Amino acid sequence: MSIVAFDPDTGDVGIALASRFFAVGPIAAHVRAGVGAIATMGSSPFKDAPEMLEWLVQGASPDDVLARLRERYTDIGQINIVDAKGRSASTTSQVTSSMWKGSRVGKFYAAAGNILAGPEVVAAFGDTFEGSAGKGLSLADRLLAALDAADRAGGDARGRMGATLIVKRKDAGYAGTDDLVNLRVDDSSNAINDLKRLYARWKEVRGQVPGFRVIEQSSGDDVRWLQKALRALGYLEASDRSVFGDDGTPVGRFNDATGRAVDRYKRDRSLGGGPSAGKETIDALARELVRKGGAR
Questions:
Q1: Is residue 210 very low, low, confident or very high in pLDDT (cuts 50, 70, 90)?
Q2: Given its phi and psi angles, is residue 18 left (phi above 0), alpha (psi -120 to 50 degrees) or beta?
Q3: What pLDDT does 296 receive?
Q4: What is the DSSP string of 36-63?
Q5: Where does the chain hold its CATH 3.60.20.10 domain(s)?
Q6: Residue 3: which of 106, 96, 75, 76 has the closest Cα?
Q7: What letter would DSSP give residue 208?
Q8: DSSP character for 176?
Q9: Which of 35, 166, 229, 277 has the greatest number of beta carbons closer than 10 A?
Q10: DSSP-based three-state secondary structure for 244
Q11: What DSSP string describes 99-168?
């Protein structure tokens, strides 16, 4: 079972999938930044995925891609496609698929599966993804939430051995790669739970998302967020050149001035004290920023 999607605000394209199939990710997940995402499952022509992405590059729509495959093969299996324009298409084999099978196409996404517990699985994919729109969540968050909901609705009737979450954006990944998020579980008794743990770890280590690690003597985007928040709430001064550059950009290093500001904020809010910002402190800051009219 899989879902592919596009985020019009960031241009991100991505995929989340799971299957009772060992190491399903490299075979079934195909994503290219600025182009689209394709899931090839259920006896689909996996080897043609690079060519499908090239067709998207050349201007073909997802429906065009499926039509070209049908000219080539009697049966094209289960395929989800979304492109970087937000167009989407889905198909499920009427020949090789077994048990319950089906698909759903919506605004900026497509979801499908076969050998599923029932129609509620695909419904959970679509309802969850659509329901998360406009809530400030990243595409990776939305995809994983949709996959988790589909799994809780019954998912693959055989179980989940492998799972994958991939989101790509041009030059936005580690060291300038396009891999914003690229995680996979190959052999597990509950691959989706393992994938969720990997994603939480990614948020801490790679994403540097505020609240996923204790911020202390470190550096990164979460430290920059913290410094901006403390400035917005009056605990740091924009003129402090140990924390902010001439243009007002936070330096992103947790230095003594930042530590002192954190300590004052925590004491004022009865959050204890000390120069470290864990989840409780970050959540408190975020709530105040929302009330103040800022953005987390």
A1: low
A2: beta
A3: 47
A4: EEEEEESS--GGGHHHHHHHHHTT--HH
A5: 2-207
A6: 106
A7: -
A8: G
A9: 277
A10: strand
A11: SEEEEEEETTEEEEEEEES-HHHHHHHHHHHHHTTTSS--HHHHHHHHHHHHHHTT-BTT--SEEEEEEE
In the three-class reduction of DSSP (H, G, I as helix; E, B as strand; rest coil), residue 6 is classed as: strand
- Residue 140 region by backbone torsions, left for phi larger than 0, else alpha for psi between -120 and 50, else beta: alpha
Say what the pLDDT of residue 97 is: 59
197 close to 184: Cβ distance less than 8 angstroms: no
Residue 226: both structure tokens together? 């913290």
Indicate the pLDDT class of residue 213, thresholds 50, 70 and 90. Answer: low
Other beta carbons within 10 angstroms of residue 265's beta carbon come to 23
Residue in the structure block whose two tokens are 């889905």: 90
Compute the mean pLDDT over every residue in the chain, rounded to the nearest whole number: 91
Look up residue 198 and give its two tokens: 């990997």
Q: Average pLDDT in the 257-286 region?
A: 91
Residue 77's closest CA among 118, 50, 48, 36? 48
Could you read off the pLDDT of 125-144 as tens digits, one per residue? 999 999 999 988 999 999 99
Q: Taking residues 189-197, what's their average pLDDT?
A: 93
Question: Which residues in 5-21 are b (16+ Cβ under 10 Å) and which e?
Answer: bbbeeeebbbbbbbbeb
60: which strand partners? none
Give the burial string for 115-141 (b: 16+ CB within 10 Å, else e): bbbeebbbbbbbbbbeebeeeeebbbb
